[in-house]
């Protein structure tokens, strides 16, 4: 008899797969249902090692389909939801905002309705709806001394961040209006194994392997705060179990890098790992047209989470980056599989439609 039934959405994606693995292996008495539409970003290969665990179930489905979601809540008596399913790539949101509205906004509201309706009879006792969100909802920073706090006003500036901000607002509105027990976390840029190679770090790794150009947007001056994906999964575990209903927790690595410096570091690590003379990969750097509306700097203040719930990042960035490179070099088949088909069309259109 499982002590808790938890729905994790988007569990076949990058972060979701690390969260699913952590929960399935750490809590053998929980039943974990992974709901994923398996878009281009979802890949069950990410979960091969745990797919036969008795406490793991996969359900293929779309969170935009309200009837399907209602039926899923009837089929399983969920105690909690950890909601990660989303369209997650900023560049794609610039070319196709509507799919971000559908999944990130409508899909989230469908899940909120289903949770509210399934749980209200019990007075929400022991229930929890956890929304996994992003620091991009806070906009961009210019003052180098400034950090995003949980109290920072929302100022989303891309269609992606506008859709995530909207879903955050709905989650909090359901807490206020229907008393749905919710927690929200807003995290900085993740990196690590299973990261889809449209995002900066895995894209650069893949391109270096193949000696392709390394497209740096604008002047490469934009700053991101990087966190190892397993540290994000650990934070989600801590917040799911110990976070206070109605609260928001910022998650970040206190680890800011200018894009161009990060790409230089990656080139150095890759040259070493591939046995190429130092300076080989740097020559591949190509400055390309900037992303429309490109946010200058993100930086998270994660002190609330650290002080109140005792979480802290476990890995130094250089160590995490080197182990990430090792993972990609050991998993070239994974890379080959996800970079065929649709990905090639996307990659070409990125540079022809600008
Ligand atoms: P991802 O794109 O790698 O994975 C998203 C997953 O959601 C995929 O498995 C996809 O198949 C699934 N999905 C998409 N649309 C769906 C739908 N309509 N119905 C069901 N499943 C659907 O994303 P990620 O980088 O792992 O991000 C996961 C979550 O964390 C997102 O909500 C994102 O906004 C948030 N987040 C990401 C980062 C980051 O750096 N990647 C940082 C902070 C927050
Ligand atoms: O901050 C959290 C967010 O981080 C998440 O909510 C998003 O889901 C996630 O995709 C990520 O968004 P970014 O836009 O910051 O990540 P991305 O990897 O796309 O880009 C990182 C930086 O690198 C950004 O400044 C744009 C730049 N870049 C990106 C790509 C893909 C390049 O210079 N060249 C590239 O080819």
UniProtKB/TrEMBL annotation:
InterPro entries cross-referenced by the UniProt entry: dTDP_Gluc_deHydtase, NAD(P)-bd_dom, NAD(P)-bd_dom_sf
Molecular function GO labels: dTDP-glucose 4,6-dehydratase activity
Pfam families: GDP_Man_Dehyd
Superkingdom of the organism of origin: Bacteria
Coiled-coil residue windows: none
Classification via PANTHER family: DTDP-D-GLUCOSE 4,6-DEHYDRATASE-RELATED
Record-given protein name: dTDP-glucose 4,6-dehydratase
Gene behind this protein: rfbB
């Amino acid at each position: 008899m499982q002590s808790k039934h938890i729905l994790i959405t988007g569990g076949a994606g990058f972060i979701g797969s690390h969260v699913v693995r952590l929960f399935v292996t750490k809590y053998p008495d929980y039943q974990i249902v992974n709901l994923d539409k398996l878009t281009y970003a979802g890949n069950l290969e990410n979960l091969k090692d745990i797919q036969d665990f008795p406490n793991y179930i996969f359900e293929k489905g779309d969170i935009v389909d309200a009837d399907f979601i209602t039926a899923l809540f009837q089929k399983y008596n969920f105690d909690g939801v950890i909601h990660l399913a989303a369209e997650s790539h900023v560049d794609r949101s610039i070319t196709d905002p509507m799919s971000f509205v559908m999944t990130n906004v409508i899909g989230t509201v469908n899940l909120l309705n289903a949770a509210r309706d399934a749980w209200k009879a019990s007075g929400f006792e022991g229930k929890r709806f956890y929304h996994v969100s992003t620091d991009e909802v806070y906009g961009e920073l210019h003052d180098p001394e400034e950090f995003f706090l949980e109290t920072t006003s929302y100022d989303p500036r891309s269609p992606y961040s506008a859709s995530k901000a909207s879903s955050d607002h709905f989650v909090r509105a359901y807490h206020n209006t229907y008393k749905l027990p919710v927690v929200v976390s807003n995290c900085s840029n993740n990196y690590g194994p299973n990261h889809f190679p449209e995002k900066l770090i895995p894209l650069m790794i893949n391109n270096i392997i193949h000696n392709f150009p390394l497209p740096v947007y604008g002047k490469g001056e934009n700053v991101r705060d990087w966190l190892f994906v397993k540290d994000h999964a650990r934070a989600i575990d801590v917040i799911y179990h110990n976070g206070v209903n109605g609260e928001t927790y910022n998650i970040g690595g206190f680890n800011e890098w200018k894009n161009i410096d990060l790409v230089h570091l990656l080139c150095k690590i890759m040259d070493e790992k591939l046995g190429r003379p130092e300076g080989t990969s740097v020559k591949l750097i190509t400055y390309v047209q900037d992303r429309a509306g490109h946010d200058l700097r993100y930086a998270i203040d994660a002190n609330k989470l650290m002080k109140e719930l005792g979480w802290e990042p476990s890995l130094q960035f250089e160590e995490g980056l080197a182990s990430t490179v090792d993972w990609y070099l050991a998993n070239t088949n994974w890379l080959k599989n996800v970079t065929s088909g649709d990905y090639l069309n996307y990659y070409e259109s990125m540079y022809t439609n600008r």
